[in-house]
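Q: what sequence does this backbone want?
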């Protein structure tokens, strides 16, 4: 677009600024009204007010011819018309746009462009004719206008009635512009015709233009007599022909003949009311033509035709041309004849005879028979087959529809086969006819002279009366001659009959039997079938194909069988013939053609033959091997004029065959797009395959349906289908619709399986990534599903749900407004999304809010544990460890970072492994049973990669410093020592520090202390000796097997070492002072720590599917 259009407007805007503003506004506005209004204002300024600006902004205005809105393109067409008429210099710049608009997809735009084309053609011809020199731009423009004329001539066969009407009006203008006008009609100032074109104009010669106009006129007359023309087009063409005949009298005879033929040969497609309208228009047209002087010689025939059309005598008499118009016409004709005679006299003045020539003239008169013989020989020598053919073809127009009685009576077939004799006979007849024509001409001249003599002798009579009298005399003479001729002819015939007997075919032939006829017919068809190469070399392959398709469509079944066998033998090379036959059958089916009497099955339904042929071709293609099979199937379905229900079913069967590959499914998609009338049928077939048992077919069909989902006209239907099948999951048993041979499940099942669940859910899940709003429908349906179906759904949603993303507004909305009963589904979805990545802050916030306000199930927090705070995780631990052991393990995996080690995503957790184990020891026994906590700590110790020797040491150190000591401290110490024996020294240190903290004051910890000492002997002997006597006696009583090893250990001491051991301690070791202490402490032996399985204390519905991590 011109950069000037984007200039900043000043406060006082000139015409150019206004044009810039209007064009900018029109290009940016989406509304039709604004664009049309602005373009009309631009047209007013550029054409009427400021025409000097037109060349400057023409291209910018023409760009709107590409606008999507038809009304805008129509407005631009009017702009082009006015611009070309007012300023012809711009025609070279607009013709190309006009060519495109004439063939616009909108009929309103095309009709407006056709109206504009007539004025543009006239303006261009005037412009070129008035130019001093012809420029290259003019030549280009004229060539484009010539192409435009050819294009519009082709549009006279358009399917649109309005376009045909405008094409006829355009051709009417072409005839008027490119022919000479009637000199009797006064010329108007703006008239333009062939006489205004200079003889020196090279690009548009008068002779060529006139020939083109004559051809166009012939085309109009042919269109006028077409059997399929509509009433509107017929009356329009009738008006155009009448106007041409009035302004161009040279076309009057042809127009009148066309109108006469029309009365007896009206198109059969017209209704009764249309016939009445056409006849009324025909009467008015003939009355109008009768008023024109040029029609005077046809006046009797027109009057007769008007009488048949119901015209009154007064109307006919009133329509006769005025006498002065007739005299002027006759005078002009006489002047033209005199001018022509003067030219002949001028040429022949040198031939004035002298006396010698008079003598020779007498000699010529005496030799007239010789000249006649010479003429016969002249004709015979030059009469060739080509000339004879031309003579016959030219005279066919004058041959009557029925054989005349004279011809029947006088014609005798030639009795010889000698070509030379026949040539001389024909030459003789032609010479006689030439002589008769000359005699008739002389006789007509004599008749005119006789009429003049009668008028001179009797001046009181009129010219008409004198002619009528002379005609009556002539008729009487003709009657006498005819009688004499007839008598003479009958005499000659009598003689001839005695000599020759006419050949009658029925006398020399016998009728063939039906079997022989059928056999000969089949032989003829087989010869045509075998002549394929000959027809191709001869250039008549198309004609041969037409013959075969016509025979196959209209003849008996054995002909069809022969042609069908021929086609199916080589489907690769004969598909074109098959399609031709298919179209022939379609034409018969739709009534475009009539069936011949040769068809032997009149009772056959109209669609049966077409349907049988189409399905047979599909079956034949299915037998073709190789890659061509899919191509042939594509062509057949895409090029067939009609796809029947059986053909759809055949394609459905083919596309459900896995061995055929995915091409049939791709064809189904193409049929949905390219067959609007059968769009829903093919879409339904493709949708059926989305629930197929075969995984390959199902996934391919789902992929193709998802591609179609992007088309606005199909998205709603596909979505409704997916939601409908999703709703089937509410049923207790699978619906029968998912079973059948076409679905790959021939047997009906009464229980939901993963296959039937996929059939109902597959398409829905595939659409979920395109239309995330559908997630809410899944949650609503999920609440009504049975437990088994829920479990399968939870497994199947994993792949599609990953495409949602944690930031999906629809997912967040679902979490926020989770339907009651769909918590496990929502948890599963969140679990899938957070399995290999940290939860987003928005998701954590929504889950936290839901947990705090509506859903108290701690399982809801599991997927977002890593997004919670350390305090929230520790607070939820008592509930979490009460869950199923597998779920607890999943919780620890998330917290410890072992669930996504393979993904490469860095782990972030609100709590460290050491803090988790310490938090488990600090759980209040009132919130969770001791054995439940023991199970949880055992799960931690099972993760050796996380709980290394150092981590365990840190935990023990931290637990030992607590007051009071955790109940499970010593169990953890024993388990740590069992896992990592190298910690024995560290454990001894802890035991010594526990003595200082008077560990015996906490019975459970004290029991663990004694057990640890028992398992770590002899290293623990040094720690045991540090116990007070009372506690030592109690320890030895609790672990009696310690006494002997401890005593042996002490006895092995040196004397100086024994001196450091108090006597009270020695007494206890030696058993002198026993403490009666008894308690039971159930600690598993080293290396054997059985985890007791106790039912989950949390009440859960056993019919519900497993929470996240169970599957």
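A:
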């Amino acid at each position: 677009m011109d950069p000037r259009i984007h200039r900043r407007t000043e406060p006082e805007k000139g015409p150019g600024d206004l044009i810039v503003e209007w064009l900018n506004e029109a290009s940016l506005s989406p509304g039709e009204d604004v664009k049309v209004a602005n373009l009309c204002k631009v047209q007013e300024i550029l054409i009427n007010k400021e025409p000097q600006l037109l060349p400057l902004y023409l291209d910018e205005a023409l760009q709107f011819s590409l606008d999507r809105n038809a009304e805008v393109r129509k407005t631009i067409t009017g702009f082009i018309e006015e611009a070309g008429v007012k300023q012809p210099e711009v025609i070279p710049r607009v013709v190309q746009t006009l060519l495109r608009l004439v063939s616009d997809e909108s009929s309103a735009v095309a009709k407006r462009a056709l109206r504009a084309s007539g004025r543009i053609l006239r303006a261009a011809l005037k412009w070129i004719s008035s130019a001093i020199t012809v420029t290259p731009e003019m030549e280009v423009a004229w060539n484009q206008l010539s192409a435009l004329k050819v294009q519009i001539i082709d549009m006279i066969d358009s399917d649109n009635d309005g376009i045909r009407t405008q094409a006829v009006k355009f051709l009417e203008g072409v005839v008027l512009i490119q022919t000479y006008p009637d000199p009797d009609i006064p010329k108007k100032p703006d008239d333009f015709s062939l006489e205004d074109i200079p003889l020196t104009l090279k690009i548009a010669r008068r002779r060529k233009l006139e020939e083109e106009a004559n051809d166009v006129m012939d085309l109009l007359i042919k269109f006028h007599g077409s059997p399929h023309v509509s009433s509107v087009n017929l009356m329009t063409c009738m008006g155009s022909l009448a106007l041409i005949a009035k302004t161009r009298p040279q076309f009057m005879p042809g127009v009148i003949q066309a109108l006469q033929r029309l009365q007896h040969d009206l198109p059969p497609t017209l209704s009764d009311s249309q016939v009445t309208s056409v006849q009324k228009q025909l009467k008015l047209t003939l009355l109008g033509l009768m008023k024109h002087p040029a029609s005077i010689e046809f006046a009797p025939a027109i009057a007769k035709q008007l009488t048949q059309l119901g015209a009154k005598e007064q109307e006919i008499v009133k329509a006769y041309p005025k006498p002065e118009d007739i005299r002027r016409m006759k005078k002009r004709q006489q002047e033209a004849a005199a001018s022509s005679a003067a030219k002949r006299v001028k040429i022949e003045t040198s031939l004035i005879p002298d006396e010698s020539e008079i003598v020779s003239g007498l000699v010529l008169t005496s030799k007239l028979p010789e000249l006649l013989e010479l003429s016969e020989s002249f004709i015979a020598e030059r009469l060739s087959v080509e000339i004879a053919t031309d003579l016959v073809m030219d005279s066919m127009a004058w041959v009557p529809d029925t054989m005349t009685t004279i011809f029947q009576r006088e014609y005798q077939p030639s009795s010889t086969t000698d070509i030379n004799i026949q040539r001389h006979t024909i030459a003789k007849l032609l010479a006689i006819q030439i002589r008769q024509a000359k005699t008739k001409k002389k006789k007509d001249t004599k008749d005119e002279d006789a009429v003049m003599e009668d008028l001179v002798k009797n001046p009181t009579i009129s010219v008409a009366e004198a002619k009528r009298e002379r005609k009556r005399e002539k008729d009487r003479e003709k009657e006498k001659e005819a009688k004499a001729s007839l008598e003479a002819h009958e005499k000659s015939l009598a003689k001839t009959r005695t000599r020759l007997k006419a050949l009658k075919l029925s006398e020399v032939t016998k009728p063939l039997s039906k079997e022989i006829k059928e056999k000969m017919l089949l032989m003829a068809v087989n010869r045509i079938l075998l002549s394929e190469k000959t027809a191709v070399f001869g250039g008549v392959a198309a004609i041969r194909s037409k013959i075969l398709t016509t025979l196959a469509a209209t003849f008996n079944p054995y002909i069809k069988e022969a042609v069908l066998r021929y086609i199916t033998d080589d489907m690769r090379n004969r598909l074109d013939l098959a399609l031709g036959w298919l179209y022939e059958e379609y034409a018969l089916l739709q009534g475009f053609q009539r069936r011949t009497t040769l068809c032997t099955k009149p009772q056959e339904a109209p669609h049966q033959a077409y349907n049988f042929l189409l399905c047979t071709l599909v079956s034949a293609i299915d037998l073709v091997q190789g890659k061509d099979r899919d191509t042939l199937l594509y062509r057949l379905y895409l090029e067939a004029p009609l796809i029947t229900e059986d053909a759809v079913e055949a394609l459905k069967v083919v596309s459900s065959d896995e061995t055929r590959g995915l091409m049939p499914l791709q064809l189904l998609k193409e049929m949905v797009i390219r067959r609007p009338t059968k769009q829903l049928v093919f879409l339904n077939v493709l949708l059926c395959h989305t629930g197929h048992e075969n995984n390959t077919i199902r996934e391919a069909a789902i992929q193709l349906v998802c591609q179609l989902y992007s088309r606005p006209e199909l998205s709603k239907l596909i979505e409704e289908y997916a939601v409908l099948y999703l709703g089937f999951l509410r049923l207790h048993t699978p619906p029968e619709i998912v079973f059948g041979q076409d679905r790959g499940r021939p047997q009906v099942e009464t229980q939901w399986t993963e296959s039937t669940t996929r059939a109902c859910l597959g398409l829905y899940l595939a659409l979920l990534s395109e239309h995330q709003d559908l997630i809410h429908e899944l949650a609503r349906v999920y609440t009504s599903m049975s437990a088994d179906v829920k479990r399968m759904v939870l497994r199947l949603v994993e792949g599609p749900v990953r495409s949602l993303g944690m930031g999906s507004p629809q997912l967040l909305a679902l979490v926020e407004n989770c339907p009651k009963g769909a918590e496990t589904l929502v948890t599963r979805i969140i679990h899938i999304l957070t399995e290999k990545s940290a939860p987003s802050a928005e998701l954590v916030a929504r889950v936290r809010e839901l947990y705090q306000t509506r859903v108290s199930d701690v399982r809801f927090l599991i997927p977002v544990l890593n997004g919670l705070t350390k305090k929230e995780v520790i607070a939820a631990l008592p509930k979490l460890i009460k869950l199923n052991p597998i779920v607890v393990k999943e919780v620890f995996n998330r917290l410890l970072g072992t669930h996504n080690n393979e993904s490469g995503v860095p782990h972030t957790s609100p709590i460290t492994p050491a803090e988790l184990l310490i938090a488990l020891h600090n759980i209040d026994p009132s919130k969770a049973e001791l054995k439940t906590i023991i199970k949880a700590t055992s799960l931690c110790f099972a993760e050796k990669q996380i709980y290394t020797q150092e981590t365990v040491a840190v935990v023990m150190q931290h637990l030992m410093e607590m007051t009071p000591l955790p109940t499970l401290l010593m169990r953890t110490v024993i388990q740590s020592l069992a896992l990592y024996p190298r910690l024995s020294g560290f454990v001894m240190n802890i035991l010594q520090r526990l003595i200082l903290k008077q560990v015996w004051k906490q019975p459970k910890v004290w029991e663990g202390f004694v057990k640890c000492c028992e398992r770590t002997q002899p290293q623990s002997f040094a720690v045991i000796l540090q116990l007070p006597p009372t506690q030592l006696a109690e320890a030895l009583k609790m672990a009696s097997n310690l006494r002997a090893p401890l005593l042996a250990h002490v006895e092995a001491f040196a004397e100086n070492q024994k001196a450091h051991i108090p006597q009270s301690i020695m007494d206890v070791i030696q058993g002198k002072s026993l403490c009666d202490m008894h308690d039971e402490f159930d600690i598993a032996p080293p290396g054997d720590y059985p985890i007791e399985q106790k039912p989950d204390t949390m009440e859960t519905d056993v019919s519900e599917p497993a929470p996240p991590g169970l599957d």
